[in-house]
Amino acid sequence: MWKGEDQTYMQQAIALAYKGFYSTKPNPAVGCVLVKDDKVIGQGWHHKAGQPHAEKEALADALNNAQDVSGSTAYVTLEPCSHHGRTPPCSDALIDAGVSRVVVAMQDPNPLVGGNGIKRLQNAGIDVQVGLLEKEAYELNHGFLHRMRTGLPYVRLKMASSLDGRTAMANGESQWITGADSRVEVHKMRAHAGAVIIGIGTILADDPSMTVRLDEALLAEMNLSAEEANPIRVVLDPNLSLPMQAKMLALPGRTIVMTSKETVENSLERVEEFHRHGVELVAVAAQDDKLDIESVLHYLADEEQVNDVMVESGAIVAGAFVESGFVNEIHAFVAPVLMGDQAKPMFVLPSVTNMNDKLQFSVTDISTFGDDIRMILKPKRHLKSN
């Protein structure tokens, strides 16, 4: 079905798509290459939500270079859209341009598309082939594809620990366990995330900024401005304990404080204080002073269109997320230091009391950042969100 050069051109399209890896949220990152007579005549990638999609960019590139698109083949990393969103349907643009063949890496699970773009192309007499380098295309958009399929964001839990699994000294001191290279990678993870979640305990102990702090040259490579790089900061605060002087409230970017419905109903004066300071407040389901993690994630997916969530928290919130079954990956940054048995652990896991309860993970990647090691792990047991 595939021609010999098809893989080469699709690899080019995937490389183009990665240029928007950090900047297209909540849209997926997509690349497109137009080929005619064994020559690339146009290429494009989706830069940001609301701007032209990859197919439109590639068609415009061909037009700017005075290339005739009719009879060409389009290589696209995700099924061309078939609905009117912020921009007109890309499938129509390819049809109107006279493209004769479209090679699609993977079908779009978005219910607004879901095969309709492919059908639209086929109904126009265009030869459509689907599935070339599908795995590589999937890696581009874990979060978007996961949200389209499950209704929930893709959750990455980041932990920084010592070799003996400690995240802070007994007095709370934690800066810095890992080195500068690891911290740059963490800031890149934040820039990719639509939201970063933190517990109120960490706010009260450390008063963190939770912003993306990368140099301008690197941000430019990521197609982001300093302000665009910041994810939504989500504070889990069941009793509305957040001080109005918290550092993050005065920093660029949005902060959402999530609390329980009961707290909102019973703490009207405190709620009014939050509103006076312009703090966004969201009430979700809770039980026994613990916010329901599924409700938190559904709000972010449904109301904020968040594809990727990053959890940066202390042991209690980290343990609650792991036990909830909604964590898709753990990113464990381990420094070659020992902090002793009095230091704080990575996770508080009340459900684990014997060996039969242990939570098992598969290591999917190991990489180094300076002297540190970063392991990416996925739970072996079936997750509610998978």
UniProtKB/TrEMBL annotation:
Q: Which PROSITE patterns match?
A: CYT_DCMP_DEAMINASES_1 (PS00903), CYT_DCMP_DEAMINASES_2 (PS51747)
- Has UniProt tagged this entry with the keyword Oxidoreductase? yes
Cited Pfam families: dCMP_cyt_deam_1, RibD_C
What pathway does the UniProt record associate with this protein? Cofactor biosynthesis; riboflavin biosynthesis; 5-amino-6-(D-ribitylamino)uracil from GTP: step 3/4; Cofactor biosynthesis; riboflavin biosynthesis; 5-amino-6-(D-ribitylamino)uracil from GTP: step 2/4
Q: Which GO terms describe its molecular function?
A: 5-amino-6-(5-phosphoribosylamino)uracil reductase activity; diaminohydroxyphosphoribosylaminopyrimidine deaminase activity; NADP binding; zinc ion binding
Cofactor(s) needed: Zn(2+)
Q: Please give the name of this protein.
A: Riboflavin biosynthesis protein RibD
Organism, by scientific name, is Thiomicrorhabdus xiamenensis
Gene of origin? ribD
